[in-house]
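hi got a favour to ask and not much time before my train. below you get a single protein, a line of residues and a line of whole numbers that encode the local backbone shape. could you go over both lines and see whether the tokens make sense for that sequence. a few lines back from you is plenty, here it is:
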Amino acid sequence: IVITKDLHLLRSHGIDRVYEVSFPSEDQALEMFCQSAFRRKTPNDGFLELAVEVSKLAGNLPLGLKLLGSSLQGRNKEDWIDMLPELRTGLNGDIEKTLRFSYDRLKETHKKIFLHIACLFNGTKVDNLKWLLADGDFDVNIALRVLVDKSLISITRLWKTVEMHSLLQEMGRGIVSAQSSDEPGERQFLVDSKKICDVLEDDTGTKAVLGISWDISEIDELFTLDEAAFKGMRSLRYLNIYKNPLKYNEENKLYLPQGIKYLSRRLRLLHWDAYPMKCMPSNFSPANLVELDMIDSELEKMWEQTQPLVHLKSMSLWRSKKLKEIPDLSKATNLEELYLADCESLETLPSSIRNLKKLKTLDMEECRKLEVLPTNMDLESLSKLTLYGCSRITSFPDISNNISVLSLENTSIEEVPWWIENISGLTRLLMSGCSKLRRISPNISNLKHLEEVDFSFCLALTEDSWHNDPQVVVDTPLGDLDLSHNTFTRLPHSLVSVKPEELNISNCRNLESLPDLQTSLKILRAQNCESLESIPPHSFRNPETILHFINCFKLDQEPLLRSSVYKYMILPGGEVPEYFTHRASGSYLVIPLLESSLCGSFLRFKACVMVDTDATKPTWFNSIIRVCCLLKGKQENHFHSVDLHILIFVTRLLDRHLVLFESCFPLNKDSDSLAAFKYDAVEIKFGWDICEIKACGIQFLL
């Protein structure tokens, strides 16, 4: 076994079977700390809160837990309390010495990237980081790979963000502070709110400053920012003025009586939460800007003239509620992300937006005054368009044939047009709450990559809205179709041709019947379909199908109970059906066993439990039915096994219901038949945390 922090060392020796050890959980970290501090798994009496805080200060890093625990071992409570302030503000010397070893062996260019991440970009998406650092004299890709291999950073798999451990971040920031301990205005990066205030108030910022990350929610008293506060910082490239999310709604204590007259023309990142001015500085030059984020600003317009924005990759003006227009973007030819959500005064988009051939994401959620989009646009790179809540939009957007996600919820769109088939890569079409939607083209069936369609709460839809086309043949099944909370009385037969794997018709209270659904169906949610009466026989033939008919009190149950195949089903009912050969009141039953029943590998049976409603339980249910199987013998020998069934539904039971499912218990895991133990009875017990089980039954399967 080879233990190392250097992944490259393993690769260079042809070792490809590598196990990456993750950080311990909070509970595990506390236990590790206690082993070192108290020589036991739990804290001594009276030390719990202190131990929890110190283990968190170690950031769940085993090295930190061990060294901090050793340094506090044998000390009394008063000593712990006295040492806490020092632990909160700086690294333990032994921890820093160990962490510095890996940093000191880096190349100078890789050290620069490490310090950028420690001071400014911990938690930033990899792509954004590459954009922002692209002007340097180093290869960002190689540097990131080296830092990952040296275990100095990690990259999350899901979100692709760069993550640095809190102790490494603290070490990096300490290295920058040491660059000029007496004059913070001569450091590369400023991150301490108090020192930033001092530098700006005393006008001591110099060209050495490359980046500022300022949490303005840490300002204790009203702070007046001079109009020329940033003038001395001619090399400033990254300016991040933000509010802590936990204090976001607190009063803004940053005051700009005369605005800002100077911002470095070298700025690549400008992020300013709650920017208080109506426009940007008149002499502001965004020629080098890569990312512009002005969230919750008071901006009414950005600037007057067309600006050279060739480097701009991302622009976010979220919740700038007074913004009436966005600037001419004709020269922002590399823009990939444009976020305008909640710009509720924005009425139009400039025609120059058609020049954004690299734009991938356009988000205009809740732009309630926006009525139309510019015509003749072909945004060839656009993959996601969000118009959620743009209630004045009446026409289906025709701006790109390469979109994969269309979010059009709560708009006034009246029709899904025939040319939707031209958007061949569409995977998600979301139109919930489109109350004026009346027509859906059958050509939607020609979209081969569609995974999710949501037409819930589209109250103008009727059974004729989705026009039938008998010529349509669909080879690729749709993933998720949501038609819930609608008023039609029957589903269109053309729905069958779309072959949804998951169909939600919950709260369609006028729906009277269902067509014969295809075998591709895996989940049917039909909660609260109070008019539903009939379903064709043999509609469900997939053993993996999940069927929810909660509160469908008019439904003819017999065809479902007799002829359906499913994974589990829930429907109204007050008695366990007679074809369950073994039935009992309550939650368990004991059944005599024949010796032949135990000769196979499994004991299989179909189960039914009848449950009563519980008005005290919440509406959202995500629960587990527990099935316990206990084999009993005359010689008091036992064999015990448990099976779990996870049930998920989102409505309250209004009366008694039946839950039907299949259970299977292994009998001879060690290849020894249980028949030799002469078991003569089986006790089967059911448990469910959200409902009381009134009766149960089983039917053995071969």
The two ends are 48 Å apart (CA to CA).
